[in-house]
Amino acid sequence: MPYAGRRMHQVQAKTILSSSNGMNIYRGCTHGCIYCDSRSACYRMEHDFEDVEVKSNALELLDAALRRKRTKGMIGCGSMTDPYIPLESELGYVRGAMEIALKHGFGFTLITKSDLVLRDLDILEELNSRTKCVVQMTLTTYDEGLCRKVEPNVCTTKRRAEVLRTLRDKGIPTIVWLCPILPFINDTEENIRGILQCCADAGVKGIVCFGMGLTLRGGSREHFYSCLDDVFPGMTERYRRSYGDRYVLSSPRNRELMALFHSFCEEHGMMHDNDEIFRYLSTLDEKKKKIQTSLSDRW
User: Fold this and answer.
1) What is the largest CA-CA distance in the chain?
2) Measured at the alpha carbon of residue 77, what is the angle toward residues 73 and 80, in degrees to the nearest 5?
3) What are phi and psi of 292, to 5 degrees?
4) 213-248 pLDDT, tens per residue?
5) For a disulfide at 152, which of 10, 32, 48, 57, Cβ 3.0-4.6 Å?
6) Is 200 exposed, middle or buried (0-12, 13-18, 19+ CB in 10 A)?
7) What pLDDT digit, counting tens, does each position of 247-279 carry?
8) Bridge partners, residue 250, by sequence
9) How far apart are CA 163 and CA 205, in angstroms?
10) What is the rounded distance in angstroms from the CA atom of residue 161 to the CA atom of residue 165?
11) What letters, b where the CB count within 10 A reaches 16 and e where it falls short, cover 235-252?
12) What's the pLDDT score for residue 45?
């Protein structure tokens, strides 16, 4: 159905939280990133990707689920779909989810590419002061022109870096996802150094990186190659010659760029071990956990 000039449809979900307390209020996206893994056929999305599915009962489900939980922890949002797609500016479901998490004494973390996250700076600050809040931001492409080609419908890296600095100034911890890095396109030392310097300047706590490259599966591969034909003529054939139908497409410069990544992070005091970062993201501070358990028991 149309909604404010965008496509969306509503569903009544049966559940909202995964076993690890992750959730996606929306399925589908309009950011237009050419490499998006969420388009992969394995996720069984039965609607056009740009026709965003909205779980209209998400907040009711979340409230009921957190009310039943006796152990406080972190709620994660956005592993499949950026929570701050344009529809969120009008629906406000992600903000509502954070308010529910706060009410029940849970922490909250989300991953986004959008500066719309600053709309909710007040609730982010309150979560961070009373429980725990971590904003995760994806950065892939330092050059502004190139960024607009690979991530066309969302704010560029320059603006995301400004968002990270704003969050730093408010005392809200941040994590950056440095992925994917596209072979033959942005797998350069200049690109990686540029992004890493943005992270250092913004006081980022840690950077997630699985290697310099990307992954492609059925569904996402076809879309990616179609986009390559449009914005980088001749690049699809180069990819097919180099990688065929592989799932993991590592940059030929992976080793040297990963060495640069680890040494830079070490020098600037940023976490760069993925396991350490994921433990940090999934753990609620024990002192705050006890305080919030006590408070929520009074409600």
Assistant:
1) 64
2) 135
3) -70, -35
4) 999 999 999 999 999 989 999 999 999 999 999 999
5) 32
6) middle
7) 999 999 999 999 999 999 999 999 999 999 999
8) 213
9) 14
10) 6
11) bbeebeeebeeeeebbbe
12) 86
Question: What are the φ and ψ backbone dihedral angles of 150, each rounded to 5 degrees?
Answer: -95, -20
Tallying the residues shown for the chain, one arrives at 299
